[in-house]
Amino acid sequence: MRKDKRIVLTLDAGGTNFRFSAIQSGNSIANPIHLPSKANTLEEILNKIVAGFQSLIDQLKQAPSAISFAFPGPADYEQGIIGDLENLPLFKGGIALGPFLQNHFKVPVYINNDGDLFALGEAIGGILPQINLALEKAGNPKKYRNLLGLTLGTGFGAGIVSNGKLFTGDNSAQAEINRMRNYLFPETSIEDSVSIRAVKRVYSEASNTDLKHCPNPFEIYKIAKNEAKGNRKAALKAFEHLGIAVANAAADANTLIDGIIVIGGGLSGAADLFMPTLVKEMNRPFHTLNGDSLDRMEVSAYNLNDETEKEAFLKANTAQIKIPYSDKTITYDKTKKTGIATSVLDTSIAVALGAYAFALQKLDQKA
What we know:
The protein is of the alpha/beta class.
């Protein structure tokens, strides 16, 4: 990928801004284009998307090979159809955005969820290769191939990558972690406790502050760090609740995936507050009906943002065991581990890199 000369145009589409970039050999090669996503008509928003990509093309000396980008769901990503979006209501009823752009620019167009592309970007050029390199340097033969990417922001998103390939479902509904049950409020979805609005709600309730006048999560973070005035106990509680809720969803998901977990999105900046709670909660055991203790997961979770825990994660715990009726031995790793870390890339950069990698994979399949 790092030597591939094909150019891919990317877009990270949010409810507030459109961020366009052009990538070649894994690097941005044009001045990024930022446009507000707000529009009054469908024609206006489509023209804005076209203008963003055209502004990139005007900077290039070589024609792009594909367009690949993140767009919120619900959607039929395989066909490039965007469905009824809450943050972008002009797409209500279903708009064939992919085919429209393909007809206009005459190149293949690929669309995915931002959580999916974030995970792929981190698996290709972010946390996963970094961890495997650290394991190798530590003399640990273990190598991780699977990754669960989580994005914490306006909502709760996820993506799954295995052996460098993005997992895609049959209905473009893969890794929709926001539909998991909320551990803290079992009759609600997890997003009611993992989102910007959730952090504000908990702070508001714990501090008896009117939600309309509640500070934003960054301000709540500063209050928790004693860097701003406010109710510190309520601020700490807001991020503790976030950590508990994320932990239970992550533990359930990783029980099926069994890989590394990486966290991105705007709320990931408060990881120093919620990560210890998150990892502790993931490692907290179940209790069976007869009162016995049962490990929450078959793997132990380690906070890779903490140097002591990272060192323990990287350390090999292997033994040479004898093969029965033979004079040969085989290496046996006695421990099962998962590591949780925040993104080593800016989330938007990881999304763009994932979009780029996904396009190259699809183009190669066609070749």
